[in-house]
Every structure is written in C-alpha cells, then in structure tokens.
C-alpha cells in the first residue's frame, strides 16, 4: 500500500461512520391499545430514541446525556433501527459536540418530557452528523398527545415510563444509570487519559482540547523519538515554536460584525438579523458553536453569491469569518455548512474574485489553520457539487486551488499570504497528490523573486513533504536544482533548509 493510500485509509477511519436511530416504545404496545379508549384516537407508542455511532448508544434523559453499548440499555433491543446515513465528520468532533451539548442545552436540569426530551436530542445530533431529520411522527407526538382531552391527565404515567429508563440499575450495580460496557470508557472519557473509575463529567473545553491533541498526535505519526528516516513511515512535525501556524489575528470580529449589520440593515430579514445576533454572541463568548447553524450559512450564501451584492459587504463578512475562524470550537460550526458549502465554494472561485477579496480569503484560510480540527477540515477529500460551476469539488480541492492561485498570480501580497498558508498546511497530514500539487506550485513560485520570509516558509513546506517520503515530491524538487544556488546567500535559516532539502533529494535519488 502506498503512503497516499495509507493516508487515505487513516482519513477514512477518522471521518467516516454510520449513524443509526434506535426507536423504543416505552409503553411496550400499551399506548396503542389503550389510547383509542382514553383519548379518542390511537397513539402508536410512547417513543424513546437514541443515536448509535460506532457501536455506542447516546441518549438524553433527566440525568443528562449518557451512553452505553448499543442495545444494552434497560430497554434492551430497539423496536426499530433506522439508518440515518453516513457522517463524514471526524469522530473526535462528534465527541466534542456531545460534550458541548452535555454542558449547555442538554443538561439534566433542562429535561422536559414533552418539550425537551430524548427525541429532541436525537434530532439535533442527527442533523449535525448527517443533515437528516428523524421521523416527523416521533417529533410531533407530544403536540398530538396534548391536543387530546385527557392528554394532560396521562402525563404522569408517561413520565414514570421515561424515568424508568434514566433510573435503570446498571445490572445490579445500583448506580442508577444506564448500563455501560465495562470494557470501554463512556463518551466523556473515550479521548482522555483519566482513570476508568472517575465518574465526574469532563468540562467540554478541556475535553475538546484533549480530543484535538489526540487527533493531532494520530495524524502526526508518532513521537519525536522515532527516526524520521524509518522506511515506510509517514511522519508529520509536531507543533513546536517553529511550527506554530501563521495567523492574521488582528481583526476585531465584533466591530466588523457591527459594520456588516450596518451595511445589511435595509436588506435582511428578521431571521437573518437574528442569525447575526447569534454570531455576535458566539464571538463575544468564544464558544458555543453548537448554537449556530444553517441560518448563518444561508445568510453567508446570500452575501457571497448574490450577483448584485456589494464588494464592501463581502469584504466585511470575510473579516468577520477570519475572527470566527480563531474560536476554538469553530469546526462544530463549519461542519454544518453541508447544504451549499458556501464558504468553500466561494474559496474555489478565488481566481474570479477581486484582488482584495482574494487576499481576505487567503487570510481566512490561514486563520482556519489555528486549530488542528479546522485545519484538517480544509483538507477533507469528500466530494460535493459546486453549485455555480456544476463541477465536483471538495474542501481539499478548494484549498489547494486557493494556494496555487495565490502563489502564481504574480501579486506580491497574495504570494506572501499563500506562502503562509502552505507553511500551515504542510504541518498537517496530506495525501500524496495534494503534496505533489503544492510542491509544483512552490517550485514555480521560488523561480521568481522571493523575499527571505516567503523563501523560509516555502522551503519549510518542501522539507516537511520530503519527510513523508512522497516520491513525486522528490522528483519535482530535483527540477529546482539550478535555482537553489540563488538562495545560498540567504539567511542562515533558509540556507540550512536548502541544504537539508538538497540532501534529502540526493538520498532519494540514490535509493531509486
């Protein structure tokens, strides 16, 4: 298996998983039998639902969010199993999302049998993971129930059925929680190194940090003690002082958002105004991406694709997004852009944008590299249809297209920003064809007049790609040989990188 295939297999294992909805009738058929007599109409069941991912069952009740092995709650086997499709999200992002919900909108204290229950939880998680809703008849049952003459009278009965799920004994343990798989930790500790017998729920911020660290370490291919020249391995540099991403953080997101609202005041609806308010709250708080969603992306799509849209409005939105990109849990927001892929579709059209918009797009992409999860999001290979062109696209294609255009368009600022972006991206796991395409663009860029800082960023990227033993990268860099001489008088750090790149290319040639 080639290194490229290994990288793709690793990527698929991290991002791809099936999502199922387990449906239980808490009344065990009783509701169907007695409701015609008591209510004057038949209710099919008293539904309890849960989401199943990777053999784990996640559900919400009066004690909050919990999980166990699929089908191992007190309810045993579900009455129905409904496939919701496949999610392309990283598993660590899903776990972080669950922790966010557990500490906010789905605390145990927020539970309400009719208005905020397990089915609402299943709906929110299903929409986040796949964009698909759970069956409407499950969601609409409470309203249908309350419209009946005796509906309120029977509420205590159904509350007792619901509590039975939450308070079910753990196979005689007396814990009062749904049974767990003793061989695996629950969702709160699956990505931590805490002791298995620790029962307190992890804070979402800390849990998310550990999730990112685990994902980063997995992608980076081992510890620093491993030999970087070990055959057949793919290594990626850990983020030290010299590998921190290059960012453009000097942007006041709240001020930019206020200016955006001023520009849009007369043309947006109340729903769109509310979407901007939610976005402002997110920027002020610095977390809570789960509260954002399609309403923001619908507005972004309107601003970025409307033929008669104002360039000033697009620029202001891009600056807002640059600030949003720096927030730790931004990836939870980004993953909800599944309808039109409006942000990455806009990035893909970079060559057709005015130069000032191109520059703001490149700054946005650089800022999205601040966090491991959002940087990886830029490199997702799952394809989708780009609406305006009708072509198949992906986040990775759009990102690479932006880098290549910026490096080769001949504008000094665009080259500077793209050199920063390729520096950032090269610190992450990339497929071999991605590394090859970026290398080709870097080589062409280095053939021109390049300042020391940009040379350093580009040679750093080449050096990182060579550490991954991508054969095509070595062959391409060899063509740069005649142009390497001009960098011999550069700074010490550039000269060192040039020498190391030359040595690695020579070693690669000898091996083949």
Description:
- Helix content is 52%, strand content 8%.
- The protein is elongated.
- The strands form 2 sheets. The chain has a 5-stranded antiparallel β-sheet with strand order 4-3-2-1-5, sandwiched between helices.
- It is an alpha+beta fold and 512 residues long.
- Helix 3 (91-102) runs antiparallel to helix 7 (204-220), helix 9 crosses helix 10 (294-305) and helix 18 packs antiparallel against helix 19.
- Mean pLDDT is 79; it is low at 1-13 and 168-241.
What is this entry, summarized?
Helices cover 52% and strands 8% of the residues. It is α+β, with helices and mostly antiparallel strands and 512 residues long. It has a 5-stranded antiparallel β-sheet, sandwiched between helices. Strands 6-7 form a two-stranded antiparallel sheet.
SSE pattern, N- to C-terminal: HEHEEEEHHHHHHHHHHHHHEEHHHHHHH
Strand order of the largest sheet: 4-3-2-1-5
Q: Please give the share of residues in helix.
A: 40-55%
Count of alpha and pi helical runs: 22
Biggest sheet statistics: 5 strands, antiparallel
Give me the count of strands: 7
| Helix/strand structural class | alpha+beta
Global outline = elongated
Question: What is the CA-atom radius of gyration, in angstroms?
Answer: 26 Å
How far apart, in Å, are the first and last alpha carbons?
Answer: 18 Å
Average pLDDT score:
79
Unreliable spans: 1-13, 168-241
What fraction of residues sit in β-strands?
Answer: 5-15%
Biased composition (Basic and acidic residues): 178-217
Protein name: PPPDE domain-containing protein
Organism: Amblyomma americanum
Pfam families: Peptidase_C97
């Amino acid at each position: 298996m080639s290194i490229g295939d290994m990288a793709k297999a690793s990527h698929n294992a991290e991002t791809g998983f099936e999502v199922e909805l387990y449906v239980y009738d808490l009344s065990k058929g009783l509701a169907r039998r007695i409701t015609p007599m008591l209510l004057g109409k038949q209710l099919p069941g008293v539904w309890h639902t849960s989401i199943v991912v990777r053999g784990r069952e996640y559900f919400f009740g009066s004690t909050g969010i919990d999980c166990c092995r699929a089908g191992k709650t007190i309810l045993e086997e579900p009455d129905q199993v409904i496939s919701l499709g496949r999610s392309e999200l990283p598993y660590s992002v899903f776990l972080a999302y669950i922790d966010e919900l557990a500490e906010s909108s789905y605390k145990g204290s927020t539970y309400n049998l009719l208005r905020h229950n397990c089915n609402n939880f299943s709906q929110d998680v299903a929409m986040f993971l796949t964009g698909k809703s759970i069956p409407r008849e499950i969601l609409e049952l409470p309203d249908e129930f309350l419209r009946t003459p005796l509906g309120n009278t029977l509420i205590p009965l159904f509350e007792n059925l619901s509590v039975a799920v939450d308070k079910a004994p753990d196979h005689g343990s007396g814990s009062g929680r749904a049974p767990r798989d003793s061989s695996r930790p629950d969702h709160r500790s699956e990505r931590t190194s805490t002791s298995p017998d620790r029962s307190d729920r992890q804070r979402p911020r800390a849990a998310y940090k550990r999730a990112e660290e685990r994902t980063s370490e997995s992608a980076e291919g081992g510890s620093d003690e491993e030999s970087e020249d070990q055959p057949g391995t793919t290594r990626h540099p850990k983020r030290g002082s010299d590998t921190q991403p290059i960012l453009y953080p000097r942007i006041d997101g709240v001020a930019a958002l206020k200016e955006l609202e001023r520009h849009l005041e007369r043309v947006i609806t109340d729903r769109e105004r509310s979407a901007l308010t939610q976005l402002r709250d997110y920027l002020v708080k610095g977390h809570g991406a789960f509260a954002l969603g399609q309403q923001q992306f619908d507005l972004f799509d309107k601003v970025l694709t409307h033929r008669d849209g104002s360039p000033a409005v697009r620029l202001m939105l891009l600056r807002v997004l640059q600030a949003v990109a720096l927030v730790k849990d931004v990836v939870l927001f980004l993953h909800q852009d599944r309808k039109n892929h409006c942000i990455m579709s806009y990035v893909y059209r970079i060559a057709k944008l005015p130069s000032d918009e191109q520059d703001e797009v490149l700054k946005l992409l650089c800022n999205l590299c601040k966090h491991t999860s959002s940087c990886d999001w830029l490199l997702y290979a799952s394809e989708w249809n780009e609406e305006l062109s009708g072509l198949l696209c992906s986040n990775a294609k759009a990102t690479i297209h932006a880098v290549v255009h910026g490096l080769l368009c001949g504008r000094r600022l665009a080259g500077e920003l793209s050199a920063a972006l390729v520096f950032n991206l090269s610190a992450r796991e990339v497929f071999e064809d991605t590394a090859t395409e970026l290398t080709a663009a870097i080589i062409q860029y280095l053939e021109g007049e390049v300042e020391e800082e940009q040379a350093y960023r580009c040679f750093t990227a080449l050096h990182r790609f060579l550490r991954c033993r991508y054969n095509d990268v070595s062959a391409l860099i060899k063509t740069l040989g005649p142009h390497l001489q001009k960098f011999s008088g550069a700074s010490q750090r550039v000269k060192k990188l040039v020498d190391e790149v030359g040595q690695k290319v020579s070693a690669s040639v000898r091996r083949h």
